[in-house]
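Quick question, first post here. What does this chain look like in 3D?
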Amino acid sequence: MGYLVLEGGAEFGGRMIEADRRALALAGGKDAVVAIIPAAAAPDENHHHAGRNGVEWFEGIGANNVTSLSVIDHASAQSQELAEQLSCSRLIYLLGGFPSFLARSLAGTRCWQSIRRLYQNGGVIAGSSAGAMVLCEHFYDPFEQQIQIGLNLMPGTCVIPHHNAAGSRWIERLKSQLPDAILLGIDEETGLINDVPAGGWTVYGRGRVVLYLKAERRLYAAGKIIDYNDLPAPVRG
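> Answer (accepted):
Ran it through. Tokens below.
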């Protein structure tokens, strides 16, 4: 099993550097192959700019081999060439943007198969905002105002990004519509990684992670550990 990095948005700036440096280290260090997937930014034609930002950010924190791949819709995600490029990566980063478009673009494709295979083989899968949302079993699309089915690396979980901003407004709706799910609020410039050797997640960055369980709410600041008993590990494959 590999590593999952879930980030709350405002990527590529500020104290998000703490989670991303850790992700790069887990992927093998500065020479690890890093692939940026900008599909979530494609609906408003921001994918080129967002992809360049991702490349510049990771190069700025020491990565020597970073590429933004042209995975921008379902058709391109079926490309065998792009899928093979993803297979050669050690860290794959899903940018923020439009979550439903991102989920539809990746679901059932060759590129998604490569992403899952990388995770199974010990690689690092990261997502910020929409990128983190679609990695869970459920996600709430604020544009469509609907709960959608995600790509399910995190069964029974729903990430709420930008929790210190707009995201917290979704809580009551999600509690009523997903009564059995774990709701995972993540502030901007904040992330968590399942990197605890004994089993668990470490919180990184500026803000907090808020875990909404059935009967209580738990808050975790940077450096705190979330045990797998409270937030289970991602799927193994």
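The first strand starts at residue 3 and ends at 7.
The chain has a mean pLDDT of 97.
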